[in-house]
Amino acid sequence: MSELASEPSTQGWVGGNVWLRGRNPVTYGLIFGLVGLLVVAAAIVVPELMLVARTRDYQAQFANASGLRQDDAVYVAGVPSGKVTGVELAGDKVVVEFRLDGGRTLGEATSASIKLATILGRRYLAVEPAGRGELAAGDTIPLGRTSVPYILDDLGRQATETTEELDLDQLRTALNTVADAMPKDAGLVSSALDGVSSAATMVNDHSGQISQLLDGAQTLSAALLDQRDTITALLGDANTVATALAKRRAVIQQLRTDLANLTTLAQGFLDRNSSEIDSVLTSLHGLTDTLATNEQALGEVIERLGPVSRYYANATGNGNWVDIAGPAGPLPDNLLCVAGLLQGCA
Predict the structure, then answer these.
(1) Which tens digit of pLDDT belongs to each residue from 273-291?
(2) Residues 1-49: pLDDT tens digits?
(3) Three-class SS state of 249
(4) CA 224, CA 238: separation in Å to the nearest integer?
């Protein structure tokens, strides 16, 4: 029974490989091997060619690689946009080569940073576009616009440097002094802690008022922010007024200085010419007295000239002759008035 069962199986295998009869299996093995190698090569090369075709290469300088490796992701503004193609040491810095999608535009002030992707230490390159213009393919982001993450090594190194700078003897002395003072001032320490507790309780009890105060401060800040244009204009007007007042003050100060100089000059002139001025004033007083006397005499002349003019006009007003009339013969009226013989004389 077993022989009968195995015979059909053998016949079926032979029947399925009839097409190999008369052909060299080594040749077909080589052909299948080459095809497999081509498929593998295509699987490796084609994605790289596609990456090169649709991306552009850039470089960035960093102080250290901070665990960044080739093939790590590159993010532009938080969006995956490329990958790291190389990390090389160049002197005292590290040059990171990466490629980005051709549609991503990087400005002339673009910055880059290495950031932590997972808690296991995986890193990624973050690129932040900034500035005008555009970085050309192959351009480098300089060291001044890159940053690296803060790692535990930095913390340990800084802790070591800080420890080395500590004066252990002084620190030991300070701790011993504190230890000696604590038992003596235990009551003060307890009072201080009670005071802190009371302050915390007060703050807790008045949390509502404190919240209202903070809300009021926020409202005031918002109001000031809304009125910033008005405040700015007011400050500008105040500056203009202050400038005008400063100019007026300078003018007044100059005027005061000029008046002081003029007063000084006048005082000096008076001091130097006091005798001559006194003589001139004395002469002027004498002149005014003389003028007053002459004015009085002229007044009397004018007063007496009026009647004489009237009599002369009366005597010559009838023709080309002079009329003389008098009640007591050919005597002038003035003579009669002087003699008292005529009444009503002015």
Answers:
(1) 888 888 888 888 888 888 8
(2) 444 444 444 444 444 455 555 567 777 777 878 888 888 877 776 666 6
(3) helix
(4) 18
Say whether both 198 and 313 belong to one domain.
no
What range does the domain containing 317 cover?
A: 273-346
DSSP string, 179-234: HHHHHHTHHHHHHHHHHHHHHHHHHHHTHHHHHHHHHHHHHHHHHHHHTHHHHHHH
Domain count, the chain: 3
Q: Is 112 helix (H, G, I), strand (E, B) or coil?
A: strand
Band of residue 187 on the pLDDT scale cut at 50, 70, 90:
low
Interatomic CA distance for residues 99 and 56, integer angstroms: 5
Q: Is 64:94 a contact under the CB 8 Å cutoff?
A: yes
Closest CA to 109 of 137, 125, 128, 84: 128
Structural contact between residues 99 and 57, judged by C-beta atoms closer than 8 angstroms: yes
Tell me how far apart the alpha carbons of residues 71 and 68 are, in angstroms, rounded to a whole number.
Answer: 9
Q: Is the pTM of this model over 0.70?
A: no
Residue 258 lies inside a defined structural domain of this protein: no
Averaged pLDDT for residues 194-219: 78
Among 345, 324, 344, which Cα is nearest to 334's?
A: 345
CA 26 to chain centre: 83
Q: Determine the pLDDT at residue 75.
A: 92
Residue 230 counted as domain residue: no
CA dihedral of 175, 181, 187, 192, whole degrees rounded to 10: -40
